[in-house]
Amino acid sequence: MKIGIIGAGNIGGTVAQHFVDAGHEVMISNSRGPETLTDLVDELGPNAQAGTVSEAADFGDIAMEAIPFSAYESLPADALSGKIVISAANYYPARDGMMDLAETHTDTIAEHLEDSRVVKAFNETYWETLRDGQRPDADLDDRLAIFLAGDDEEAKEVVAGLIKDIGFAPVDAGPLTEGGRHIEPGSPIYTEPMTASEARTRLAALQTTVAAYEHGYYDPSKEITVQELADELDMSEESLSEQLQQGSEQLISQYLE
Ligand SMILES: NC(=O)c1ccc[n+]([C@@H]2O[C@H](COP(=O)([O-])OP(=O)(O)OC[C@H]3O[C@@H](n4cnc5c(N)ncnc54)[C@H](OP(=O)(O)O)[C@@H]3O)[C@@H](O)[C@H]2O)c1
């Protein structure tokens, strides 16, 4: 597959190396121009080349952005139109400055790339875990998880395939907004290295706890019983109680850390 990468730092460079090692063709770019990427391209190997940002955007059917969030409006929306765009950027106010955001960080980028098929991925794995954590010979359940979120199921399938190619396991967190908020800074599962089976268990507990909150379960005036909530969420009372306990534990320990 031909993949254009915008951003050649910790994340862009690390993911580029994995893609090249898995047999994909990569064009990598930064804001300063291809001539500043000669050493990186030599390291990446023969399946890599450097280009400008717009050349990288044009390069394949799939592109990835891994740039500072504060620069997201420089992403070339026209050149990325119709393409699958993997979005790895996270917003940190102290680093990026105060900005007006949509509901999640990636929703903000997706609004800018309104004609692209945006998939949020590689944003919640620390770059050194990404560099060293691949386990291509392990069963998928035992590999380290890489979460993804997006509204385009076919695009997510393609990105999930790339994640498998590089020795990790894709775990679908759901649509861009509802799923995306579970894998952004502030979530208990953000940057926590975990196997795919652990990732699915922890994600499900968080999703159920949020659903319980949205159904008014934590509002005493609504007097919703566990049985009523279990019926509403179409799950057994026992697994609902277990997930609420696990979800609350994750959220409270995150708050206390
Ligand atoms: N570090 C992590 O562990 C990690 C994990 C997950 C997600 N993320 C997110 O991924 C993004 C990148 O993080 P990083 O750690 O890889 O940062 P980094 O090492 O500082 O790399 C950023 C790269 O983006 C390039 N760049 C900056 N502005 C650009 C622009 N307008 N157009 C094109 N390229 C541009 C930089 O090169 P020039 O300055 O030369 O242009 C550099 O190659 C951030 O949003 C971060 O929150 C980071």
Any overview of this molecule?
By secondary structure, this protein is an alpha/beta fold. The chain has 2 domains: 2-173, NAD(P)-binding Rossmann-like Domain (Rossmann fold, 3-Layer(aba) Sandwich), CATH 3.40.50.720; 204-256. It has 11 helices and 8 strands. The chain has helices at 10-21, 38-44, 53-59, 93-96, 105-112, 127-132, 153-165, 176-180, 196-214, 226-233, 237-256; strands at 2-6, 25-29, 48-50, 62-65, 84-87, 117-121, 145-150, 169-174. It has an 8-stranded mixed sheet, sandwiched between helices. The protein is globular and about 65 Å long. The chain starts with a strand and ends with a helix. Bound molecules: NADP nicotinamide-adenine-dinucleotide phosphate. The site of NADP nicotinamide-adenine-dinucleotide phosphate has 23 residues, from helix 1. Keywords: Oxidoreductase, Transcription, Transcription regulation. This is HTH cro/C1-type domain-containing protein. It comes from Haloplanus vescus.
